[in-house]
Design goal:
flat, single chain, 1252 residues, alpha+beta, 7-stranded antiparallel β-sheet, 42 strands
């Protein structure tokens, strides 16, 4: 009966009874495995208190600073700094110079500060070394081509191969080419030698010697046609008498090889190369003989004990060459690790980029020409060709058929030649201020001439590009169509004469004429990569139906215009030349939608390109944080219902004039803030919508763009004035009657602000026949019902006029909750008495804030919340609720997949401000207390889980606040113990204790949350090692690891080692472990000589991080395969990182590294000792028990293979540290004071190399 010393008797009986049953092998192995595992009790690692790091550094200051390797013992100076700066794509800031002075609203002020302030980035000088080996600045971990290893045992000795086949081995081919070689035959005279053409390879062998092989062609065949060993050659000379370009290789035994090149240049190259090799061989032989003579002269008398070294010296140079050959092209052992070979960067977070303006796929739309069939020579100059006889104006926009909306602003173009444009100069209408024609370059806006742009830069978000054309208002659309379509009855000059008269009277009015479209999806792009199709063309120009002018009607036309059987569109014969192309790399002279020049920009330019604003839907995924100042308002007059009005006799050709005013007094003037049309000033005081002929209920599609002032108040409003335009031209009428072009037929107005916010979307307004002073007070419904002697409403004050307003501003918000929160904060800052609980109410209301508003104003909102958090004095409820709002915003960003904006905010925007009150605490102090308070609440588990899941944001904010506090207050120069108050250290410890149970107890309930907080906490403590008392941080790490147990499941063990790996990846991991000797009494040094590199309590105390990692690894090695693999992987990755760290490449520095990790060799030795005791169980022909404990020995041998190569050649050096072994041997000697043990290394299983 076999003996089972490790099994209890009850398990033994159960085991032996089931041996005879067939098909139970797997069951048997599993039961035995469990029995053996249960027989080994995992003991919890002893808690070792770390040393007082700062005190040790202070006490050993002289010793450390006198050490030549002191940079491995202390942190570098100026390890942390702040980089201030901001890159802008515009020539100047988009924020006006006096914007902050004009702003009165707190929200507007904070927006302006955000857009004009610089980034504040905390720069860690050695941050590239703070991750794993994949993040190191040296990225050449993996060799381009790993050379193949050829061993003698693999060679086929049955084949009689020539020794020249070694030319493909180490050393490689030095030179190759065609040569002619003379056949050696003693019966033939020298002059009659026959030369044969062969391809020669000059190669170096592994022993350093050189060989010249010849083959029939360039391909190296198995059989060489001949070889010449250059070691036997002593000279090379030319021999032109033998053959042209011939030379002779003379050997030591006075034998010669005759070769000939094909050109003189090739011959010279071969001679130079061969002479260098022969000279090198000669010098080596001379040095050998000299060394041999000196060795013989200094020979010892004791020749028996010390035999003559002459024989050894004879090949000393050969050994030296072999050594150099082995080092040539030698790879770092860690390059062969599978993870290094794979080099997977999937787990590494991408670099955090700063906020930037969102730019989709962009292209240039360049309008070049628009002409009808009716052309005439209008200029007397010979260079001017035929042109249109009247002015036409174009506007382009993008439409989205999928979502049925217009998604870009209008881009207006004036393609009229100067001769046609001059027709508008005589227009002197009273309402045309700022719209008169002028020569380009009259004035500058942001340094840009107010000239008309001929091309626009657009973002691709829509499948349709629509062009609309307008001409001067001069009567019926049918009459104008007849004029342009059939010009048989009238000549072009007569039409031009009429148009000139119309321009003099109605030059400021426009009317719809036609439209054309181009499908972007199928015609603009050739492929999915976004290649523009320059061959695409617009559709024919269709006549504009006056009853189908709205965007909805246009979308229907676009959906059906390719189906002629359903639509009867009248085509206007015209040529439209619009080019759409990619933006070149050197694209210059472009301005934003606010006319701010974009880099690069030439000051003396005439033609500029204007970016067209993209009107994206109010959806979170299309939103992005605002980074530039922009304050535009788009006004769209839609419809006027005047068919039932009885006030005005004539109200048919109705024109709508839009003005923006800041007062409703009688003498108030409109503000010059409306963007004008091409040919006029950039900013004007009014804008007119297109006029429809004889239509009492006209529809409008015009877009009026307004530059809003920085400060808005209750008096700011839009004023709409309606005019009846007389289009009749009667030469017999009196001049007074002719001058009456427009007749006022009503007014409408709308205040811009309601409850302090801008009101947008569609509005229905009543129309008044007059405009009394103080008319803004008559706009509400109640005042209309009461009636007023001053206002005369049309059609009983019914809402006759429909408009739509779109706000495109980065300084104003329409969200009610956000507006009220900032409004209350402004009152408190102004000195108003703070009502208890009022601020908490507004903070809680922020949870109802719209997600798109939250994203757009993300930096402004977050900074204000941190500001409120910092200025909290005594109310803990305010701090907790403020943190809860932060948590809500962070969770919403993650849910929308926009967490990269949060990382950008923390890195570039966030800046902890000084508290206003004397008793107030810094941001990091208040935030730590709030986080601990939330985690200790037992009721709100949803908030706790969110805080754990997204804890990285708060820990990153803590770290940056601490860094900015130290740098701005100049406390970075203080001793670490004096940098932060004791209260902050207590708060950090309290937060740590609050986190531990959520990780170690609730890990099954919240696996994702517990893993995230575990990793975030490790990263934060790693940063604390840079700022705080390192001894205190060591204690925090110790307390956290003590919360884990050896009996923890696999998930918790992974947490523990992930935590330790993150901490040990600190950029100054070596100085943190103090790789120095700690003095002991002489007697104690003798007693502890065997424990010099063992995991003793003293070792773990002096070298805290590495000691803790090795102790936890030694315990994990007694567990199952997955846990063993996790522990060994952490150790291996740490070794790989240090092996490739360019700061530790010198051998002396390597010594200190190996000394820290040498206790791992003792662990390896203990594991192999355990393997010898645990022999496999043999029962018949079945082997049991090998799948359990001996497996850990195999895993450890494989995982620690690299560590074994760091065992010293001479373990006891002067410094008591270690130096690395060579990679070449296949056996590794583990040497200490008590034993010498040989451990075989398994190259096959781990590295993939062949063992010798």
């Amino acid at each position: 009966e076999p003996s089972f010393p490790f099994l209890p008797s009850c398990l033994l009986r159960k085991f032996t009874k089931r041996l005879s049953k067939p098909g139970t092998a797997a069951e048997l192995r599993q039961s035995v495995s469990e029995a053996v595992r249960s027989s080994f009790v995992l003991e919890k690692t002893k808690v070792v208190e770390p040393l007082d790091y700062e005190n040790v550094i202070l006490q050993r200051k002289v010793q450390i600073y006198s050490d030549p390797l002191r940079d491995l013992l202390i942190f570098p100076i100026e390890d942390v700094s702040v980089i201030i700066g901001r890159q802008r794509r515009t020539v100047q800031s988009t924020v006006p110079e006096d914007a902050l002075k004009k702003a009165q609203s707190l929200f507007v002020k904070e927006c302006i500060k955000t857009y004009s302030s610089d980034w504040h980035v905390v720069n860690y000088k050695y941050e590239e070394y703070s991750g794993d080996f994949r993040m190191l600045p040296c990225k050449s971990f993996r060799p381009d081509k790993i050379p193949s290893h050829v061993f003698e045992i693999d060679e086929d000795f049955e084949k009689d191969e020539d020794s020249s086949s070694l030319c493909s081995q180490k050393g490689g081919v030095i030179k190759q080419g065609w040569l002619h070689r003379a056949n050696v035959n003693s019966t033939i005279t020298v002059t009659m030698k026959v030369f044969k053409r062969r391809y020669f390879y000059l190669s170096q062998l592994t022993d350093g010697s050189y060989i010249l092989n010849s083959y029939k062609d360039e391909k190296i065949s198995k059989e060489s046609k001949g070889c010449i060993f250059l070691d036997a050659c002593n000279d090379v000379v030319q021999c032109p008498k033998m053959r042209r370009y011939a030379f002779e290789l003379k050997t030591i035994d006075k034998y010669s090889h005759y070769l000939a090149a094909e050109t003189e240049q090739e011959m010279e190259e071969w001679l130079v190369t061969l002479r260098k090799i022969i000279q090198s061989n000669t010098e080596s032989l001379v040095q050998e003989k000299k060394d041999a003579v000196e060795s013989v002269q200094g020979q010892s008398i004791n020749t028996y004990l010390h035999p003559s070294p002459a024989g050894c010296k004879q090949c000393a140079w050969r050994n030296q060459l072999n050594k150099l050959s082995r080092n040539d092209g030698r790879q770092n052992l860690f390059s062969f690790d599978p993870e290094v070979q794979r080099l997977d960067f999937s787990g590494i977070e991408p670099d955090v980029k700063p906020f930037e303006e969102k730019c989709s796929r962009r292209f240039v739309v360049c309008c070049q020409d628009f002409s009808l069939n009716l052309l005439a020579q209008l200029s007397d100059r010979s260079e001017g060709g035929p042109t249109n006889v009247e002015p036409f104006f174009l506007s382009l926009a993008l439409f989205d058929l999928k979502n049925n909306c217009k998604i870009s602003a209008d881009f207006h173009v004036d393609l009229n030649p100067p001769s046609v444009r001059d027709m508008l100069l005589d227009n002197s209408a009273s309402g045309a201020e700022g719209t008169k024609g002028r020569s380009p370059g009259d004035s500058l806006v942001h340094g840009v001439p107010e000239s008309s742009a001929r091309c626009g830069v657009r973002t691709v978000s829509s499948p349709w590009n629509v062009q609309r054309s307008l001409l001067l208002f001069q009567g019926s659309m049918e009459a104008m169509a007849h004029t342009n379509f059939s010009c048989v009855l009238q000549t072009a000059q007569k039409v031009h004469k009429v148009a000139k008269q119309v321009c003099s009277r109605l030059g400021q009015y426009r009317m719809p004429f036609g439209w054309a479209a181009r499908l972007v999806t199928s015609h603009l792009f050739k492929d999915s990569q976004g290649t523009l199709d320059a061959e695409g063309k617009f559709s024919p120009l269709y006549k504009q139906d006056s009853s189908k002018l709205s965007n909805e009607d246009m979308l229907k036309l676009l959906a059906e215009y390719k189906k002629p059987e359903k639509t009867k569109l009248q085509v206007i014969p015209a040529q439209l030349n619009i080019v759409i192309k990619d933006i070149p790399l050197d694209f210059t002279n472009c301005v934003t939608a606010s006319y701010i020049p974009i880099k690069p920009f030439e000051k003396s330019c005439e033609d500029i390109a204007v970016e067209v604003e993209e009107l994206v839907p109010e959806v979170a995924k299309y939103c992005y944080p605002f980074t530039v100042y922009k304050n535009h308002l788009y006004v769209y007059p839609l419809h006027l219902k005047y068919e039932n009005q009885k006030v005005f006799a004539k109200a048919r050709n109705i024109a709508v004039c839009v003005e923006f005013r800041d007062s409703d007094e009688a003498d108030a003037r409109p503000l010059k803030c409306i963007y004008g049309k091409p040919g006029g000033h950039l900013l004007t005081t009014n804008a007119y919508a297109a006029v429809l002929h004889h239509n009492q209920s006209p529809e409008f599609y015009d877009e009026i763009k307004i530059e809003l002032p920085i400060h808005l108040h209750q008096k700011h409003h839009l004023l709409f004035t309606f005019y009846h335009v007389s289009c009749e031209i009667n030469t017999k009428a009196t001049s007074k009657k002719q001058d009456t072009v427009e007749t006022q037929v009503g007014y409408a107005w709308v205040p811009l602000l309601k409850d302090g916010r801008i009101v947008t979307l569609e509005r229905h307004l009543p129309v008044s026949s007059n405009l009394p002073p103080g008319y803004l007070g008559l706009g509400d419904t109640e005042s209309r019902k009461v009636g007023s002697m001053d206002a005369k409403w049309v059609d009983g004050a019914k809402p006759l006029f429909k408009i739509r307003i779109h706000l495109d501003s980065t300084i104003y918000t329409q969200d009610m909750h956000l507006h009220k929160f900032f409004q209350y904060c402004q009152l408190v800052q102004a000195g108003a008495k703070e009502v208890p609980g009022e601020l908490v109410k507004y903070l809680k209301c922020l949870h109802a804030m719209e997600i798109q508003v939250m994203i757009q104003f993300l930096p402004v909102i977050l900074m204000q919340l941190f500001r409120v958090l910092t200025n909290v004095t005594q109310e803990d409820e305010v701090a907790v609720n403020c943190t809860m709002v932060l948590l809500h915003i962070v969770s919403k960003c993650h849910e929308e997949g926009l967490d990269h904006y949060l990382r950008s905010f923390i890195k570039y925007v966030f800046r902890a401000e000084k508290p206003s009150g004397t008793q107030a605490k810094m941001t990091h102090e208040i935030l730590v207390l709030s986080m601990a308070t939330i985690l200790k609440q037992s009721a709100d588990f949803l908030a706790i889980n969110k805080l754990l899941k997204y804890s990285w944001f708060f820990f990153e904010a803590l770290a940056k606040s601490m860094a900015m506090y130290l740098l701005e207050e100049n406390k970075i120069k203080l001793p670490r113990g004096q940098r932060f108050p004791d209260s902050y250290q207590h708060a950090l410890h309290s937060l740590l204790l609050a986190i531990i149970p959520h990780v170690t107890i609730r890990y099954n309930e919240i696996p994702e949350e517990s893993r995230n907080v575990n990793f975030s906490l490790a990263n934060f403590l790693k940063r604390c090692l840079t700022f705080m008392d390192r001894g205190f941080v060591f204690n925090l790490i110790n307390d956290y690891i003590s919360g884990f147990s050896p009996k923890d499941p696999k998930l918790l063990v992974e947490y523990k080692f992930e935590f330790l790996q993150t901490i040990c990846n600190h950029e100054h991991y070596i100085p943190l472990n103090l790789p120095m000797t700690f003095s002991k009494p002489k007697l104690q040094r003798v007693q502890d000589v065997n424990l010099e590199y063992s995991l003793t309590d003293e070792y773990c105390r002096h070298h805290f991080l590495v000691g803790m990692l090795l102790r936890e690894a030694s315990v994990a090695l007694q567990d199952n395969y997955d846990i063993r693999y996790t522990a060994i992987s952490v150790l291996k990755n740490l070794l790989i990182k240090h092996a490739f760290d360019n700061r530790y490449q010198h051998k002396v520095r390597h010594i200190l590294l190996v000394g820290l990790l040498f206790p791992a060799v003792r662990i390896h030795s203990d594991v192999h000792s355990l393997e010898t005791k645990l022999q496999p169980m043999v029962f018949g022909k079945t082997r049991y028990f090998r799948r359990d404990l001996p497996a850990l020995c195999q895993d450890w041998a494989r995982g620690s293979l690299f560590l074994l190569f760091w065992v010293p050649e001479n373990p006891h050096t002067n410094s008591g540290a270690l130096c690395p072994l060579s990679v070449q041997p296949s056996l590794c000697l583990l040497k200490n004071t008590t034993c010498l043990k040989i451990v075989p290394l398994d190259f096959c299983t781990f590295v993939g190399l062949r063992a010798v």
